Amino acid sequence: MSENHEPENGRPLPAPRGSAGEVIGVRTGMFGANDGGDTSGYGGLVRPVVLPGATARPYGSYFDEVADELEGALEEQGLVPENAIEKTVVDRGELTFHIAREHLVRVARTLRDDPALRFELCTGVSGVHFPHDKGRELHAVYHLRSITHGRLIRLEVTAPDADPHVPSLVEVYPTNDWHERETYDFFGLIFDGHPALTRIMMPDDWQGFPQRKDYPLGGIPVEYKGAQIPAPDQRRSYS
Amino acid sequence: MGLEEKLPSGFLLTTVEQAAGWVRKSSVFPATFGLACCAIEMMTTGAGRYDLARFGMEVFRGSPRQADLMIVAGRVSQKMAPVLRQVYDQMPEPKWVISMGVCASSGGMFNNYAIVQGVDHIVPVDIYLPGCPPRPEMLMDAILKLHHKIQNSKLGVNREQAAREAEEAALKALPTIEMKGLLR
Amino acid sequence: MSTSNHADHAAGAARAASRETTEGTVYTVTGGDWDEIVQSAAKADDERIVVNMGPQHPSTHGVLRLILEIDGETVTEARCGIGYLHTGIEKNLEFRNWTQGTTFVTRMDYLTPFFNEAAYCLAVEKLLGITDQVPDRASIVRVLLMELNRISSHLVCIATGGMELGATTIMIYGFRDREMVLDLYELITGLRMNHAFIRPGGLAQDLPPGAMEKLREFVKTFKKNLPEYDKLATGNPIFKARMQDVGYLDLTGCMALGATGPVLRSAGLPHDLRKSDPYCGYETYEFDVPTTESCDSYGRFLIRLEEMRQSLRIVEQCLERLEPGPVMVADKKIAWPAQLAMGPDGLGNSLDHIRNIMGTSMEALIHHFKLVTEGFRVPAGQAYAAVESPKGELGAHVVSDGGTRPYRVHFRDPSFTNLQAMAAMCEGGQVADVIVAVASIDPVMGGVDR
């Protein structure tokens, strides 16, 4: 994460609209192979990988209303909204709240119970692994749907690889039971407070967390007559 | 019309092998071993339009102990592999295996950590059936080819001899990568 | 504990000593031990056993494993074991380009291939920012295919559900009608299953000649066939006795467990993404969202029947609306350059198109080569697109890092979420009702495990 979005003295610096965004990695070259010399001439190409950064108000659509209600409801509970909500991103017509992980359960409960918010349905958690986003490698992404108001928002929580703990949302949304087990199974994210966090997809004695970026695809080379094609992750490909 | 017209004065002359093969192939009992997409096509093959009953095998047995054909229909995951082997072990001899679809035959497009790259790593396969998923017609073709194989299978000493010959041929066979010629 | 053990040991030693005679140890048939065991078994009055159903079992949809703790005929605890069909599709997608992704997602829930493709493509289009540029004809054909798919999926659910009750006739009927839908798929996409026909930006190709007539013919035939399910099952006393009040899950339970689709609608809430969060122009079609208040398997069966009728209505509206036009976005940097044609061995590259780019235009050839081998780049960010699949809310969470391949694709499959409700539906009921309850959720393990 870039430093300027870090809360300072409890007040975040709102990023200007259309900011450079959040650099999560760097892409070099054009083709996947790095073993030989640079015959393509594209080897010196360096491009940063930039995710959309924080958005300044107004967010547009129903997003302002949701953000106001959420901040108001959190303040009522004696919580400084800026501490709980690290940043708010509006991108491609979707609203994302980046939540500090220690406040996740409180925020989710508020989103569910506040009559003006009423996000009754959680569509589960999706893990994303950004190995180059130092200190925030593991992201857990929740999509919440309000049937009452016909709205959809996204919560995003991050955890470092060294301390892959995120509070469990099962007590708020029981539907997350299997979803959290799945994310644990694939990414090694430990959901504190989950009733039985065990592997769900892979065999119980499986080693490693297969959908992390540092876990290989695990394919085998395919043999043809007189030729061999490496597994998809070993092939030379565009990057 | 049938066999009886070719017979002189009501006698049927055959070998024990031919007779045993004939009865065996005429009522093969497949075990229901549906795994993925191919299982749906396997069910379709058993249903009205394709009507597997014409080949005396519409009854899919729920219990492997009553079955002699295992149609591995779909991708076999690492977690399913031991179960598959156990089901195969529970089937009584003689038994045959059709590896239905490209995932069961070679892992197919799912060349990754989760899928066994070919069910022949776990059980011996008699017929490999390509396709993703194979059409019901292709499954029936595979079944007919298997019937042919069952009809001509050997018994007793001949069986041992055939197994020895097959093994010697397999030992002499070139690995795929050393083969030459067109990719077919 | 230890004292009683000592006592047992002492008693056993005494008994063993009494058996020792001059002619060796004598065992009596009545035996002291057996009486005790029989008595203790009779005293416990306990028939509590744990039964493993699956993963290979004829009536669990695919490779589902049910672990049931049963007391006599009553299920006291029920748990699911899943993952026996885990295919790693989400990981595989990260090594293929964006267009190739449809080939993988279509194989997730193999009974609803068009919904998987549509959810994925809608998410990719959102990331690309071309949602508005998808041509009308492409959207209408997408709706048409999705509604046909809803019919074929519900038919399999009803057919296999009936078979699991022992009603083989309904299975034959269901597969008979499903074959008609599959014939249409084959005509339109070239494949019976796993089509990869809906692509980011539109469709793989236009409807083939003769498709409209076949579609109209199908609508006519299926309208005639649909009432047969009513005649066969809806009023059938045995069918009703097996289905009514079985697999009960009320609205509170549905909301807590995140159940969507027919399960939620059988609890009386008319929640349907086609109405509440329309995509592909669903807001312009006329159809109803059926609900019941019964919360049980029978209600879900009725809802599925009614949804097939509504789907047929939508298909008819699609047929009226279809106007000739493009089926792919105009942006040549995204639109798949290949043109497909039906050859003698099925759908493949159009030979005329290949002749044209190979023989006449070097630039077209370069463009074709770049787009097919490299693919297009998708700006970094994330998007979530959800469609109402026959099983419920099917969501695709797609993350891009600005490359030519997806960074992460996660599918929120309705079967996976709804299957969690199995325990709530089955515990306290009969063993035989477990099958009915699971069938009424209609889980497809390809979607559950992915």
UniProtKB/TrEMBL annotation, chain A:
Protein's cellular compartments: Cell membrane
Topology of this chain in the membrane: Peripheral membrane protein
Location of the region described as Disordered in the Swiss-Prot/TrEMBL record: 1-20
E.C. code: 7.1.1.-
Keyword Transferase: no
Molecular function as annotated in GO: oxidoreductase activity
Stretches assigned to the NADH:ubiquinone oxidoreductase 30kDa subunit domain: 98-219
InterPro entries registered for this protein in UniProt: NADH_DH_suC (IPR010218), NADH_quin_OxRdtase_su_C/D-like (IPR037232), NADH_UbQ_OxRdtase_30kDa_su (IPR001268)
Keyword annotations of the record: Cell membrane, Membrane, NAD, Oxidoreductase, Quinone, Translocase, Transport
Catalyses which reaction(s): a quinone + NADH + 5 H(+)(in) = a quinol + NAD(+) + 4 H(+)(out)
Assembly information from the UniProt record: NDH-1 is composed of 14 different subunits. Subunits NuoB, C, D, E, F, and G constitute the peripheral sector of the complex.
PANTHER family: NADH DEHYDROGENASE [UBIQUINONE] IRON-SULFUR PROTEIN 3, MITOCHONDRIAL (PTHR10884:SF14), NADH DEHYDROGENASE UBIQUINONE IRON-SULFUR PROTEIN 3 (PTHR10884)
Stated role: NDH-1 shuttles electrons from NADH, via FMN and iron-sulfur (Fe-S) centers, to quinones in the respiratory chain. The immediate electron acceptor for the enzyme in this species is believed to be a menaquinone. Couples the redox reaction to proton translocation (for every two electrons transferred, four hydrogen ions are translocated across the cytoplasmic membrane), and thus conserves the redox energy in a proton gradient.
Family: Belongs to the complex I 30 kDa subunit family.
This protein's name: NADH-quinone oxidoreductase subunit C
UniProt source species: Streptomyces antimicrobicus
TrEMBL record, chain B:
Details of cofactor binding: Binds 1 [4Fe-4S] cluster.
Statement: the UniProt record of this protein carries the keyword Protein biosynthesis: no
Annotated NADH:ubiquinone oxidoreductase-like 20kDa subunit domain residues: 37-146
EC class of the enzyme, as a word: translocase
This enzyme's EC code(s): 7.1.1.-
PROSITE patterns: COMPLEX1_20K
Catalytic activity: a quinone + NADH + 5 H(+)(in) = a quinol + NAD(+) + 4 H(+)(out)
The protein's required cofactors: [4Fe-4S] cluster
UniProt KW keywords: 4Fe-4S, Cell membrane, Iron, Iron-sulfur, Membrane, Metal-binding, NAD, Quinone, Translocase, Transport
UniProt-annotated location(s): Cell membrane
Pfam families, per the entry: Oxidored_q6
Binding site for [4Fe-4S] cluster: C37, C38, C103, C132
Superkingdom field: Bacteria
Main subcellular location: membrane
Record's bilayer topology term: Peripheral membrane protein
Keyword Cell membrane included in the entry's annotation: yes
NCBIfam families: nuoB_fam (TIGR01957), PRK06411.1 (NF005012)
Subunit-level organization: NDH-1 is composed of 14 different subunits. Subunits NuoB, C, D, E, F, and G constitute the peripheral sector of the complex.
HAMAP family: NDH1_NuoB
Job of this protein: NDH-1 shuttles electrons from NADH, via FMN and iron-sulfur (Fe-S) centers, to quinones in the respiratory chain. The immediate electron acceptor for the enzyme in this species is believed to be a menaquinone. Couples the redox reaction to proton translocation (for every two electrons transferred, four hydrogen ions are translocated across the cytoplasmic membrane), and thus conserves the redox energy in a proton gradient.
Family that this chain belongs to: Belongs to the complex I 20 kDa subunit family.
Protein name: NADH-quinone oxidoreductase subunit B
Organism: Streptomyces antimicrobicus
UniProtKB/TrEMBL annotation, chain C:
Localization annotation: Cell membrane
NCBIfam families found in the cross-reference section: NuoD (TIGR01962), PRK06075.1 (NF004739)
Span list, region Disordered: 1-24
Name this polypeptide is given: NADH-quinone oxidoreductase subunit D
Keywords linked to the UniProt accession: Cell membrane, Membrane, NAD, Oxidoreductase, Quinone, Translocase, Transport
Gene3D superfamilies, A to Z: Cytochrome-c3 Hydrogenase, chain B (1.10.645.10)
Molecular function per GO: oxidoreductase activity
Ranges of residues in domain NADH-quinone oxidoreductase subunit D: 165-450
Pfam families with a match to the protein in the record: Complex1_49kDa
Family: Belongs to the complex I 49 kDa subunit family.
Biased amino acid composition, Low complexity: 1-16
Protein EC: 7.1.1.-
Role description: NDH-1 shuttles electrons from NADH, via FMN and iron-sulfur (Fe-S) centers, to quinones in the respiratory chain. The immediate electron acceptor for the enzyme in this species is believed to be a menaquinone. Couples the redox reaction to proton translocation (for every two electrons transferred, four hydrogen ions are translocated across the cytoplasmic membrane), and thus conserves the redox energy in a proton gradient.
Catalytic activity: a quinone + NADH + 5 H(+)(in) = a quinol + NAD(+) + 4 H(+)(out)
